[in-house]
Amino acid sequence: MKLLSIILPAYNEEENINLSYNVISELMYNNSIDYELVYINDGSKDNTWDRIEEISRDDKVLAINFSRNFGKEAAIEAGLKMCNGDCAVVLDCDLQHPPDMIISMYRLWEVGYEVIEGVKVSRGKESFVYKLFSKIFYSSISKVTKFKMDKSSDFKLLDRKVINELNQLPEKNRFFRALSYWVGFKQATVEFEVQERVNGESKWSFGSLIKYAISNITSFTSAPLHLVSLIGVIYLIFATLLGGYSLISYFTGNSLEGFTTIILLLLLVGGTITLSIGILGIYINKIFEEIKSRPSYIISKKIHGKTKVKVYE
Ligand code: UDP
Ligand code: MG
Questions:
Q1: I want to staple 213 with a disulfide (CB 3.0 to 4.6 A). Which of 44, 137, 199, 295 is the partner?
Q2: Does pLDDT of 133 surpass 60?
Q3: What is the model's pLDDT at position 306?
Q4: Distance 306 CA to ligand 2 centre (A)
Q5: What are the structural domain ranges in the chain?
Q6: Ligand 1, residues at Cβ distance < 6 Å
Q7: Where are the annotated coiled coils located (predicted)?
C-alpha cells in the first residue's frame, strides 16, 4: 500500500494540533489511505511542542522540533527531507487549507499527476491593503518567473520523484511555492476556498510580508538586477539629451537658468543610485548567506511514533 505523508508546519498553534490531528486521522481512516503525519514545531513560544509530543504516542506521527523559529520555508524543507511517503502533501495546521481537498489531490496523484497544487478561489478574510500588496507581489513574481502564481498557495501534493529533486537542491533561501513549478513534472490543480482560522492568529505582520516578498523575489530571480541595468540605460539616453540641451543653452548664453531642474535631477539621480545599490546589496547578502552554507534549520528533537527515537537530546 502507498504511503501519504502529511507535512504540517506549526508555529504557536497549540490549539490546532489536536484538532488537525483528529480531523486528518479520521479523514484518512474513512478513505482507507495509509498515511503519516509529520509535525514540525518551528520554535513555538506556546505549548505547541507539548501537544505534538502527546499525539506522537500514535505511531503515525513523526514529530520534529526546531531549536528556534526558522520560518515556514525551513519547516517545509525539513518536512520534505524527513518524510517517508510515496507522496507528500504540505498543509497549514490551522486548517485554513481544507483537509478534505487532500483526497481530491491524492486521487489525481493516483492517476499519474506528480505536482498537484491547491489554487485559491477566494482569499478568505484579508484586509484591503493585504489583498492589494499580495496582488502586486504575485503579479510581479508571475511576470518575472513566467509561472502563473496569482492564486497559488503552499498547499501542494508532490510525488516522491519531485520530493527527491527538491531535496537535492543545494540552495538555502527557498521559495517552495515557486520551486514546485520550477521542477516541472506533470502538474495539476485543485481549487479550494481559504477557510477561516478557527484558533489562534496569523503570524504575518505587514513588515514580515514585505520582507517575505523581497526575500522570495530576490532568491528566485535576478530580474531586479536587470531592472537596475535598464534604469541605467534610460539614464544614459536622458543624460545625452539633457547634456546636449545644456551645451546649446551655454553657447546661446542661457546657462544660468535651471536651478530647480538641477535640484530635481540631483534628488532623482541620488535616489535611484541609492535604490540600485540597495538592490545590489540584497543580492550580495544572498550570496553571502549561501556561501556561509549554514543549515536552514536545526533540529533539537525528533520523535518517531513507533520507535520513539530521540536525537540530539
Ligand atoms: N508557520 C510556521 N513558521 C512561521 C510562521 C508560520 O511554521 O514562522 C506555519 C503556521 O503555524 C501555519 C502556516 O505556517 O501552519 C501558515 O501560517 P499562518 O496561518 O500564520 O499564515 P496565513 O495563513 O495567515 O498566511
Ligand atoms: Mg493560516
A1: 137
A2: yes
A3: 54
A4: 30
A5: 3-205+296-309, 223-292
A6: 9-11, 13, 42, 69, 71-72, 75, 92-94, 96, 202-204
A7: none
